[in-house]
Amino acid sequence: MKTFVVICDDENMVVSGLESILMKIFDSLNVKYEIDVYYSGATLNKAMKSNKKHYDLIFLDIEFAKEEVSGVDVGRHIRNARRNNASSIVYISWEKKYSMELFDTQPLNFIIKPLTYEKIEKVVMKYLELAGLWSSHFAYKIGQDVYKVKIKDIVYLESMDRKLIIHLADGSHDEFYGSLKAAYNEQLKKYDFLYIHSAYVINYDFVKHYAYEELMLEDVDFSFSISQSKRKDVRARYRSIMEKRRT
What we know:
Elements: E1 3-8, H1 12-29, E2 33-38, H2 41-51, E3 57-61, H3 71-81, E4 88-93, E5 109-112, H4 117-130, E6 137-142, E7 145-150, E8 154-160, E9 163-168, E10 173-177, H5 180-188, E11 193-197, E12 200-203, E13 207-210, E14 214-217, E15 223-225, H6 231-246
Parallel strand pairs: 1-2, 1-3, 3-4, 4-5
Antiparallel strand pairs: 6-7, 8-9, 8-12, 9-10, 11-12, 13-14, 14-15
């Protein structure tokens, strides 16, 4: 799942610095992202109106030196005119005086410049946690030891004999005894995973091609068969996940 981010600030150094920080944070977390940049509130308003693009995370300067449209005005436009309560708005400013003025736009946070990696990382992590993209882990046991991996890093789970093999985005894998059905129902079903076969549970985020009888994953050089008994349910779930992510 890609996170769509916009930076709106009229200071070139602030924009370039913030964009660089965000790229480093998202890359370190293995989170897919796309960043757009605007240098005025009016331009951002016009762009959102014309291309109807949805942004998940919005960094808004409060004061623009050469125009009357403030970041607060843009925030109100997003919440009221566009009826968008889903986007997370982060206001940025050199001044602390705006906190009460921001209340009615329900911002995720208000950051005082200068912007630092630590300040931005804290906000990004908060957004990812609220969006359900980061904090959750999958737990399993090997002997008496309990291990945890981030849900978002699981590419697929494979059942072989009485063991499960967990395949991760970095190419590593681990083996442990367990039930694929139990792992899916108890830990993965509430996330965007597809139970396609008695031998496979797949993370939707890594699917590069889906067909009714099979699917293919990124960086995996073979296709996964979808068992006949599960094809109807998998198709319905796949479409449901697609629709959910479009909103």
